[in-house]
Each structure stands twice: as C-alpha cells, then as structure tokens.
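# nightly structure sweep
# worker-07 picked up a monomer target from the shared queue
# config: single-sequence mode, recycle default, output format = structure tokens
# input follows
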Amino acid sequence: MFDTVIFDVDGTLIDTEYVYVHSLQQTLQEVQHRTVPAEDLLFILGIPGMRALEKFTADPKERQHLFAIWLGHAAALKDHATVYPGIHDTLAALHAQGVTVGVATSKIHEEMQTEITRFGFQGAFDIVVTADMTAKHKPDPAPLLAVMAQLPETARAVYIGDAAPDLAAAHAARLPFALAEWGAHDAGQFAAADYRLAHPRDILPLVRS
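# output follows
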C-alpha cells in the first residue's frame, strides 16, 4: 500500500490537450507557415514546451519567439481546459486517508500557481515540483527525485501519469508507475505500466486506509 501519490498534471489532473495542441498548430501556421495535424503534435504532452519546440527549429531565439506566441494562443483557448471528472473527489479522499499528495509537472512555477487557483486546487498538494525547479526534465527522473527528496526515506510512493515520459521517469526513479487511462493515448504502448487506472477513484485501493 502506498502512503504517497505523485501526479503529473496535464493529461492526468487537467485535460489541456485541446489547448496546447491547437494553440501550437496555430503558432506553427502563423510563424512557419507549416500545417501540422493534431495527431502529430501529441508528443508535446508531458514534456516542457521549449523542449517540444526543438522539433521545429534548432535556433534558440526562434524557439523563444515561437514559445511566446504559443503561450499567447494557449491563453486565448484556456476555457477549453477542464479538470477530469473525479479528480477533486479523489484528492479529497487521499487527504482524508492521510496520504501525502505530490506533483511533478512540466509546467513552470508561474503556470502551476495559475492552474492551482483557477481549478480550485488550493491545499490539494503537499509537494509541488515544476519544470523550473530542476535542470533536467521527464523522461529524466530528476523531477520525481526532487519530490522524493522532500519525503521520509520510508515513503512508499507511486507516480501517476498519462504519457511515455511519465512512465520512463518513474521507472528511472525506481518508482512504480500507474497509467491514467482517462488521459492517455494509445494505452497499448504502456505495457510496462505497473498499474492501469480507468478512473481517478481507482487510485484509492492502492493507498493505505
């Protein structure tokens, strides 16, 4: 039984796929006159935005330019983002059972604070590690190790995410990985997942009562 649950954010707690994919489509069309199908941009989910843009330009200055425009278009689509059904109830139940709840996300601190306020996550997380808090990012284990460094050595943690970088980071950190099937694409690629969760409430049987 686990006493600590660590969550990814996008695709796990919040459904932001439409926001980030469509805003990047718009950005690439506007700046590079490039039309990219939505399915070819799903790789961006679960990794930092600047790293995702490496696929479209090797020029750091152009990446910064693309990123700024992308953020603007994403902000215009923010109303399309929603918390997955059952997340708030599950987080409340975890806290009621004395479970430590952490986050390891590819969002930067400012973005995460905005999401916490906007989606009513105040007080929901005991530990938050954002992309600007570690030099390396998922699939590197650094974000998860940063969470674990704030826990007792005896902590028994599981990482819950929806994307391949989440799984790789968990196993590199020597943590079991639970697939959030409600946000994942092509669930068949996650044969190495230790647990598969069809609904957020499926987390509860994994933790101490």
